[in-house]
């Protein structure tokens, strides 16, 4: 399904964005402060034009440690500059005393009691610079960021999830269908994850489309569009937040807590507006909470094809909506640069926020 955007302004086509070390920076936000003691050496590193795997390989060659012995909280893109934390047993500390690499800088070191594990981060802070920005486009960008700061954004999976050719999800489906074999477990899991992500994105696009219809038409007009009773339509029209909730939806306490099936739509809509709970979408697979009623009917349209393969996938719930924090921006008119900073929850994509702001896919 075609990607749907939440914001309503016309696409901003003239600005220029390049994902390079000068114009795109990711700074990891740790889940917890490091203790300063323990058997694990924590390296605070800055890399550019390298994938996380390439960086770890370089660290491995310098230290003599195996790549699998390093701990890290998340994989970062090759393009741009990344500042993140990596751990290794402190027995390798001497190898980093005179560390030098053209694409990696060691910013500082400390110690911790445990190895850093995947997912052990609060989120990431991003810096993005757009170029060739006219004053009229700068005003649109500023208003878009104000809206996202206040209301949040749809939490799509980014284009990175789907590979250079955009067909990773098709390869993932082929694996599930037994039409393709992939012996590399990491690639196997990546392709299946891309398939799950494509279903999620299609479902979220539909929910955005439905929410726009609810905001655009009267209750009477909606009765001609949706086959739902008056009480449901009245509930939809009464909701103040953009992404509307339906009976049977699964929400999640935000940013931490548990998932739950909605029992009182009005109450959960108020909590959604207050950023205390948000709607979630299904990453198709086993052992994940499922929607009910009307919400399940919509979910099934996009996820029914995955039903025969659920036992082969690990299911989960993903925030359908998320909130950017510490949003800042600056327009440098003389250079025609528009610069922005914002922090996102782990698993969210800065490029998705940028696409929303520009109202076009990168």
TrEMBL record:
Protein's UniProt keywords contain Isomerase: yes
Alphabetical list of InterPro entries matching this protein: PsdUridine_synth_cat_dom_sf (IPR020103), PsdUridine_synth_TruD (IPR001656), PsdUridine_synth_TruD_insert (IPR011760), TruD_catalytic (IPR042214), TruD_insert_sf (IPR043165), TruD_pseudoU_synthase (IPR050170)
Catalytic reactions of this protein: uridine(13) in tRNA = pseudouridine(13) in tRNA
Domain TRUD: 152-322
Keyword Isomerase: yes
Keywords, in A-Z order: Isomerase, tRNA processing
Gene Ontology terms, MF aspect: tRNA pseudouridine(13) synthase activity
Highest taxon above the source species: Bacteria
Active site: 77 (nucleophile)
EC number: 5.4.99.27
PROSITE patterns reported in the protein's UniProt record: TRUD
Similarity comment: Belongs to the pseudouridine synthase TruD family.
Job of this protein: Responsible for synthesis of pseudouridine from uracil-13 in transfer RNAs.
Protein name, per record: tRNA pseudouridine synthase D
Source species: Sulfurospirillum tamanense
Gene: truD
């Amino acid at each position: 399904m075609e990607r749907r955007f939440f914001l309503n302004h016309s696409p901003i086509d003239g600005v220029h964005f390049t994902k390079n070390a000068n114009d795109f920076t990711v700074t990891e936000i740790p889940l917890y402060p490091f203790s300063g003691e323990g058997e694990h050496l924590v390296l605070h590193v800055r890399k550019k034009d390298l994938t996380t795997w390439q960086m770890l390989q370089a660290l491995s060659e310098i230290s003599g440690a195996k790549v699998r012995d390093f701990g890290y909280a998340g994989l970062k893109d090759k393009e741009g500059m990344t500042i993140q934390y990596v751990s290794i047993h402190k027995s390798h500390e001497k190898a980093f005393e005179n560390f030098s690499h053209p694409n990696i800088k060691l910013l500082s070191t400390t110690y911790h009691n445990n190895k850093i594990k995947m997912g052990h981060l609060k989120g990431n802070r991003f810096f993005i610079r757009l170029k060739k920005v006219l004053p009229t486009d700068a005003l649109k960008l500023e208003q878009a960021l104000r809206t996202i700061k206040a209301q949040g954004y749809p939490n799509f999976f980014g284009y990175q999830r789907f590979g250079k050719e955009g067909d990773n999800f098709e390869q993932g489906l082929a694996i599930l269908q037994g039409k393709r074999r992939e012996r590399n477990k990491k690639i196997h899991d990546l392709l299946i994850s891309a398939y799950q992500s494509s279903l999620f994105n299609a479902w979220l696009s539909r929910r955005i489309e439905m929410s726009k219809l609810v905001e655009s038409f009267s209750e009477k007009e909606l009765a001609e569009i949706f086959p739902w009773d008056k009480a449901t339509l009245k509930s939809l029209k009464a909701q103040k937040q953009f992404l509307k909730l339906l009976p049977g939806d699964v929400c999640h306490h935000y940013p931490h807590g548990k998932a739950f099936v909605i029992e009182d739509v009005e109450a959960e809509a108020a909590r959604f507006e207050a950023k205390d709970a948000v709607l979630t979408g299904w990453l198709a697979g086993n052992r994940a909470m499922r929607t009910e009623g009307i919400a399940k009917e919509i979910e099934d349209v996009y996820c029914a094809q995955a039903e025969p393969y659920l036992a082969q996938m690990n299911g989960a719930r993903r925030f359908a909506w998320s909130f950017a924090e510490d949003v800042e921006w600056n327009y440098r008119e003389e250079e025609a640069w528009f610069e922005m900073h914002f922090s996102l929850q782990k698993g969210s994509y800065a490029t998705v926020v940028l696409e929303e702001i520009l109202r076009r896919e990168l």
